[in-house]
Automatic annotation (TrEMBL):
Lineage: Bacteria, Pseudomonadati, Pseudomonadota, Alphaproteobacteria, Hyphomicrobiales
Name the record gives this protein: aldehyde dehydrogenase (NAD(+))
Entries under CDD domains matching the protein: ALDH_CddD_SSP0762
Family the UniProt entry places it in: Belongs to the aldehyde dehydrogenase family.
Entry's Gene Ontology molecular function annotations: aldehyde dehydrogenase (NAD+) activity
Annotated source species: Ancylobacter defluvii
Length: 471
């Protein structure tokens, strides 16, 4: 049983003032593996004060100095890739492919931002004005449990590039991962106060950050409901806000698609991160002319998506993060049947052979209508819905008929057709034929999937304010 009893303020690991504790679990076994001591509003005050004290000097650092910090952060995080992978596997239960990707990407985000910073002009002449891009001030970052240290590193990288000290509130359910990444980041030797981390509940530490008078900017990744609450709280002091929220992404199969290649990719995007991903393509849109064939191929391809303990390299779908999340997903599987959708594969309960752990049977519903709740609400688990469409115009109509607009996926043999469809999709990022991630491209959502963008120049400028001097 491990005890996390320190938070990180002013370049030091210190005990929190808060007295609350939260249990930590291994979701594959349901066993408690640790306890985290949580911070409170007083700890937020201490962390924000440390960041505020660091701001005047840090804001004046040169581009070269910040790039050097980003390179040190990359080295420090990359050096402990095995430790990061092990703790994610234990505390979160993610499959090997996701763990491997996450442990490597945690370090690489610093180099991605260093490349952005290298070519960025903080000063420029526009007409008769001298324009300077300045740090926004103290940043508060609130991060979720589904890719804990990835979000911490990405938001820290942007803050360092901008010259803005940061206070991070990670999910309390990921405290073991937070401890390891905090140790890595400490080794990079950032100036005291540039990085601060306070474990705590959202309604305590998150709320205190969202209303703190000395916080100028909030960056949040998480649910749309929580994003709304943060936006309301931040409005009182007109904080700058970036929100990366939920999604109900369409996975569009055009009628010329090569199903041998496409069906496994459709399932991979639907079940990404065990379905616990805002970008998951959970609505499969298929042409009615090929619906019967696609149904059969989805069922056959599902055999390759084994659910179980992520320690097994053959597993592609791990457990849900908590009992509460498991019960939520089960309730949606019941709801889908009550709404009249046809259970094509999967269903309620644990996968065969698994008697414990918060595992869900990979589930696909057919005969789904886009007005059903299982097609409109974010389930955040391995549950997909198959929706038929008449033609391309109908597919685009269904794809855009959602409160969300984070990601979308288009599969076709004719790239020109795929791009034409992509241009009509209301989403912040459209991926054609499983194209690889581009770290310099903007990431964020339309509609209720968020406000603002992350990554590259777009993410950097979200942490900056422009000042024009006319003489």
């Amino acid at each position: 049983m491990r005890i996390i009893d320190r938070i990180y303020i002013g370049g030091q690991f210190v005990p929190p003032q808060g007295e609350e504790q939260a249990p930590l679990f291994n979701p594959a076994t349901e066993e408690q593996i640790g306890t985290v001591h949580l911070g409170n509003a007083g700890d937020v005050d201490r962390a924000v004060a440390a960041a505020k004290n660091a701001l005047p000097v840090f804001a004046r650092t040169s581009k070269a100095e910040r790039m050097a910090m980003l390179e040190r952060l990359n080295a420090a995080v990359s050096a402990r890739g095995d430790d990061l992978a092990a703790v994610m596997r234990e505390e979160y239960g993610a499959p090997a492919a996701f763990v491997d990707y996450s442990s490597k990407r945690a370090g690489s985000v610093f180099l991605d931002m260093a490349r952005t910073l290298e070519g960025y002009a903080f000063r420029r002449r526009i007409g008769t004005a001298d324009v300077e891009m300045l740090p926004s001030g103290v940043v508060a970052a609130i991060t979720p449990w589904n890719s804990n240290y990835g979000f911490i590193c990405a938001k820290l990288a942007t803050a360092v590039a901008a010259g803005a000290p940061i206070v991070i509130k990670p999910s309390e359910m990921s405290a073991l991962q937070t401890q390891i990444i905090a140790e890595c980041l400490h080794e990079a030797g950032l100036p005291p106060g540039v990085l601060n981390i306070v474990n705590g509940y959202g309604d305590v530490v998150g709320a205190a950050l969202s209303t703190h008078r000395d916080v100028a900017k909030i960056t949040f990744t998480g649910s749309t409901a929580t994003g709304r609450a943060i936006l309301r709280a931040a409005a009182a002091t007109l904080k700058r806000v970036t929100l990366e929220l939920g999604g109900k992404s369409p996975n569009i199969i055009l009628d010329d698609a090569d199903l041998d290649r496409v069906i496994p990719q459709v399932l991979a995007m639907g079940f990404i991160n065990s379905g616990q991903a805002c970008i998951a393509g959970t609505r499969i849109l298929a042409p009615q002319s090929r619906l019967e064939e696609i149904e059969a191929r989805l069922v056959a391809a599902l055999a390759a998506f084994k659910a179980g303990d992520g320690a097994d390299p053959a597993v592609r779908i791990g457990p849900m993060v908590s009992r509460r999340q498991w019960e939520r997903v089960q309730s949606y599987i019941r709801l889908g049947q009550q709404e009249g959708a046809r259970l094509l594969a999967g269903g309620e309960g644990r996968p065969e052979g698994l008697e414990r752990g918060w595992f869900v049977r990979p589930t696909i519903f057919a005969d789904v209508r886009n007005d059903m709740r299982i097609a409109r609400e974010e389930i955040f688990g391995p549950v997909l819905g198959l929706i038929g469409y008449r033609d391309e115009a109908h597919a685009i109509e269904i794809a855009n008929d959602t409160d969300y607009g984070l990601s979308a996926y288009v599969f076709a043999t004719d790239i020109g057709r795929a791009k034409a469809v992509a241009e009509r999709i209301e989403a912040g990022r459209v991926v054609i034929n499983a194209a690889p991630h581009e770290p310099q491209a903007p990431f964020g959502g339309f509609k209720q999937s968020g406000i603002g963008r992350e990554f590259g120049v777009f993410g950097l400028e979200a942490f900056l304010e422009s000042r024009a001097v006319l003489a």
